[in-house]
Amino acid sequence: MKAKHAGGLRILVTGRDGQVGRELIASLAGLGEVTATGHEELDLASDYSIASVVRDLRPHLIVNAAAYTAVDKAESEPDFAWRVNADAVATLAAEAKTVGAAMIHYSTDYVFDGAKATPYVEEDATHPLSVYGKTKLAGEQALASAGIPYLALRTSWVYGAQGKNFLLTILRLAMERPELRIVDDQIGAPTWSRDIALATASIAERWRHSGFAAAKSGVYHVTAGGRTSWYGFASEAIRLRAQSAHARKLAHLTPISSAEYPTPAERPKNSQLDCGKLARVFDCTLPDWKASLEAVVHTLD
Ligand SMILES: NC(=O)c1ccc[n+]([C@@H]2O[C@H](COP(=O)([O-])OP(=O)(O)OC[C@H]3O[C@@H](n4cnc5c(N)ncnc54)[C@H](OP(=O)(O)O)[C@@H]3O)[C@@H](O)[C@H]2O)c1
Known about the structure:
- The chain has 301 residues and is of the alpha/beta class.
- It has a single domain (2-163, 191-224, 272-286), classed as NAD(P)-binding Rossmann-like Domain (Rossmann fold, 3-Layer(aba) Sandwich), CATH 3.40.50.720.
- The protein is 38% helix and 18% strand.
- It has nine helices and 13 strands.
- It has a seven-stranded mixed sheet with strand order 1-3-2-4-5-6-11, with helices on both faces. A two-stranded parallel sheet has the order 7-10.
- It is globular.
- The model has no long low-confidence stretch (mean pLDDT 95).
- The protein binds NADP nicotinamide-adenine-dinucleotide phosphate.
């Protein structure tokens, strides 16, 4: 799939059908010619597939929105998660080096253990609790050591009007069941996929003006403003949804602890990411989570 803009950058976006990938196609279109690949055209589990797409396209910028994102499933297939989230990032970055491309990649709050009491800054020590978190951290590290200009954008709790995400699952279950029990002791920032894509475009535009300066390379935290728990997120989503003329009676929500909802992968209790560096270096700040959630819920009718 291609979106054209004369005289601009050649941009390769992977993960075209994912939450962030699908939003990037429109948001990056103003910067140049966007070629967005799905799993079939570019399979991160195949070095051959990565190399042939990159060498054929010779992009100026690669935006890697594809990833193995099944956090719980990763616990039972760590090798495959590692292949896609770590090894493939190394391969993609090596291919970027071959053609002289810069790279933007996404990472996660799950690189932290959540033991810190305040929001994490980029320099804080990492300590992932899950296989997924470990593979994503390894991907960041592979990118950092590849010797190319790069940005690793750590985001959190991604949702949107399409795709597999907590918001859509909760709203569906809230129609089907009288009560839902939702974890209330994990704190973070639900972040709309479109806000991530728009921020990526704004960052890419500024970065390009500095010639993809290596000095700006590094890890950045990119999440919505504000904070809440999964229970707070679900409560607000249901409150907004209940305003809809089409809404039926929705489930009553009960807050519970993580211990009452065991999952294969352990999640950090504190997922808050301090986004000050993004504001200072790229003059970019994402909207507050509540404002974006309202915009998304209102598109669901
Ligand atoms: N979702 C979150 O809550 C969250 C939180 C923090 C950070 N992030 C990070 O943000 C980025 C974007 O996440 P997202 O929510 O947009 O993910 P997503 O909706 O799960 O999309 C990921 C995409 O990657 C594709 N993919 C998976 N394995 C692939 C492979 N071997 N080759 C090529 N494509 C492959 C998937 O295609 P198939 O479905 O066909 O496999 C899917 O279209 C990821 O780096 C993720 O780790 C996400």
